[in-house]
């Protein structure tokens, strides 16, 4: 929004498209009955925000997608476009924007084409969006000329990381600050934000200062007690970043200063939305889920089963802070693991026979975080440490290694499923993890996979989740021996005499489930 303010201040004519049809096509993220209310809500919010920072609105206009996207001419162009676009190009263009599922709906393949056609029907010279739109922009540059329309300029801005250390998401409340958040909510979210001392690469709080606060005010003030050096004003972001990297600026002071600056920015917007009419609009556009009528228990007749896809797993990079033997179980470790939250999680793992305490201490690991917590010999385990294992004469178990340069809290995902939101908590009766686990494998290159597709992080496909066994491994499916606990279960394998060992293809999660 600060970049839109720059365009308006520079005298550009700016059109903001409320893409209601796109919202419906993107896996039906919003029901039709709410789309009209939400377009009105966002128009009021955007105007209030721009007015609060003194931006002229004379050259700003709003257009709703369905005002022209249902016309005869536009519909005909959709058909024309579909006759020249390949399924491969349509899917690739929407990979970072459209929700990715194993069996995509046709609507998700139409989405990039509609966004390309919008450039022609809005008669714009340039389209502006986040870097996550770049594949759609490339798609538009390729296919609009095929219909006889001119190619447009494309402008992009960086994506601000979420406060939790992962990508900012509208469905993850703790990752973002809403324009109408109360001061208490702003304080709570910033207090829980991931802001590791000296870490400037994966820091949503610092990124917010860089991309939002500095462009609006041209300076930023660190507020702190005199005994810690007193207040300090920065007129260049890089100076602030350097001081934070050198730990001259403490995360607590940084968060408190952002809270003060942010509330000054939000106060005029809160005041405008304090009227009865806008309060009513806010409630109608975004009704409180707790006040919705409860849904009848049990699946509806002929309803489709839930998709069992890897994006439902909340897998994150973790850092082992401490390792101790379980007081009541010789085979179990009790680890404290930083997964990017306010406090480390306690994880109980059956690794005593396989991995030394020294190997685990301060190690970056891969943790499944949305299993239902369960007590293991009296200690509650709040996650599962994921490992690879080898069965046979000499059993080996080793924690998976995230890519070099990873940070605690970064999400681990399967390529093609990075946009899906994990379940808040996996329900044991639905056995989502168990069904997905059956297709967890380790490739010949020692990369963890699901159905031959790599697990990876935001660092990219070239940096997969690795197992570093330095020798060939057995392969077969997970099959817990009779009478063992989940922490003791393992892959089982049978080998015929003289049979060569095959590359390991079984990822063996360990710990609590």
TrEMBL record:
Keyword entries, A-Z: Aminoacyl-tRNA synthetase, ATP-binding, Cytoplasm, Ligase, Nucleotide-binding, Nucleus, Protein biosynthesis, RNA-binding, tRNA-binding
Enzyme class label: ligase
Catalytic activity entry: tRNA(Tyr) + L-tyrosine + ATP = L-tyrosyl-tRNA(Tyr) + AMP + diphosphate + H(+)
Domain TRNA-binding stretches: 309-413
Gene Ontology terms, MF aspect: ATP binding; tRNA binding; tyrosine-tRNA ligase activity
A Gene Ontology biological process term: response to stress
Gene3D superfamilies in the cross-refs: HUPs, Nucleic acid-binding proteins, Tyrosyl-Transfer RNA Synthetase
The keyword Chloroplast is annotated on this UniProt entry: no
Subunit-structure text: Homodimer. Interacts (when binding to resveratrol) with PARP1; interaction stimulates the poly-ADP-ribosyltransferase activity of PARP1.
Function according to Swiss-Prot or TrEMBL: Tyrosine--tRNA ligase that catalyzes the attachment of tyrosine to tRNA(Tyr) in a two-step reaction: tyrosine is first activated by ATP to form Tyr-AMP and then transferred to the acceptor end of tRNA(Tyr). Also acts as a positive regulator of poly-ADP-ribosylation in the nucleus, independently of its tyrosine--tRNA ligase activity. Activity is switched upon resveratrol-binding: resveratrol strongly inhibits the tyrosine--tRNA ligase activity and promotes relocalization to the nucleus, where YARS1 specifically stimulates the poly-ADP-ribosyltransferase activity of PARP1.
KW Ligase (keyword) present: yes
Protein family: Belongs to the class-I aminoacyl-tRNA synthetase family.
Main subcellular localisation: cytoplasm
Region of interest called Disordered, as start-end residue ranges on this chain: 283-307, 487-513
Record PROSITE patterns: TRBD
EC number: 6.1.1.1
Organism: Molossus molossus (Pallas' mastiff bat)
Subcellular location as annotated: Cytoplasm; Nucleus
One cellular-component annotation, GO: cytoplasm
UniProt-recorded name of the protein: Tyrosine--tRNA ligase
């Amino acid at each position: 929004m600060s970049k839109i303010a720059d365009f308006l201040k520079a005298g550009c004519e700016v059109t903001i498209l409320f893409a209601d049809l796109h919202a419906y096509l993107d896996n039906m993220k919003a029901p039709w009955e709410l789309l009209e209310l939400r377009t009105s809500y966002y128009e009021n919010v955007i105007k209030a925000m721009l007015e609060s920072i003194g931006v002229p609105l004379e050259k700003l206009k709003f257009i709703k997608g369905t005002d022209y996207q249902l016309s005869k001419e536009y519909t005909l162009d959709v058909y024309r476009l579909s006759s020249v676009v390949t399924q491969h190009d349509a899917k690739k263009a929407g990979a970072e924007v459209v929700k990715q599922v194993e069996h995509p709906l046709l609507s998700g393949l139409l989405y990039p084409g509609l966004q390309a056609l919008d450039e022609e029907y809005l008669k714009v010279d340039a389209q502006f969006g986040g870097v996550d739109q770049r594949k759609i922009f490339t798609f538009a540059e390729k296919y609009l000329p095929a219909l006889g329309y001119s190619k447009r300029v494309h402008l992009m801005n960086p994506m601000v990381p979420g406060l939790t250390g992962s990508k900012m998401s509208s469905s993850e409340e703790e990752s973002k600050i809403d324009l109408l958040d109360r001061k208490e909510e702003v304080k709570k979210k910033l207090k829980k934000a991931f802001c590791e001392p000296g870490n400037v690469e994966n820091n949503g709080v610092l990124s917010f200062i860089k991309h939002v606060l500095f462009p609006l005010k041209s300076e930023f003030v660190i507020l702190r007690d005199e005994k810690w050096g007193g207040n300090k004003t920065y007129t260049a972001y890089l100076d602030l970043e350097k001081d934070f990297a050198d730990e001259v600026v403490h995360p607590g002071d940084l968060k408190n200063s952002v809270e003060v600056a942010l509330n000054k920015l939000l106060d005029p917007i809160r005041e405008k939305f304090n009227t009865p009419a806008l309060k009513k609009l806010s409630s109608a556009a975004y009704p409180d889920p707790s006040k919705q009528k409860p849904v009848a228990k049990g699946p509806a007749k002929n309803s489709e089963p839930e998709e069992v896809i890897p994006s439902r797993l909340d897998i994150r990079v973790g850092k082992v802070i401490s390792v101790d033997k379980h007081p009541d179980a010789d085979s179990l470790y009790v680890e404290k693991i930083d997964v990017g939250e306010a406090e480390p999680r306690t994880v109980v793992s059956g690794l005593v026979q396989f991995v030394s305490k020294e190997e685990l201490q301060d190690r970056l690991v891969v943790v499944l975080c949305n299993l239902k917590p369960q007590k293991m010999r009296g200690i509650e385990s709040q996650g599962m440490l994921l490992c690879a294992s080898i069965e046979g004469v000499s059993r080996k178990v080793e924690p998976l290694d995230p890519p070099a340069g990873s940070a605690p809290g970064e999400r681990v995902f399967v390529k093609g499923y990075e946009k899906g939101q994990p379940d808040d908590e996996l329900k044991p009766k639905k056995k989502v993890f168990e069904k997905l686990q059956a297709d967890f494998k380790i490739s010949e290159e020692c990369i963890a996979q699901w159905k031959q597709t790599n697990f990876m992080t935001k660092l990219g496909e070239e940096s997969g989740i690795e197992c570093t066994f330095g020798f060939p491994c057995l392969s077969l499916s997970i099959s817990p021996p009779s009478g063992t606990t989940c922490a003791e279960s393992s892959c089982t394998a049978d080998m015929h005499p003289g049979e060569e060992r095959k590359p390991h293809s079984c990822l063996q999660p360990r710990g609590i489930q």
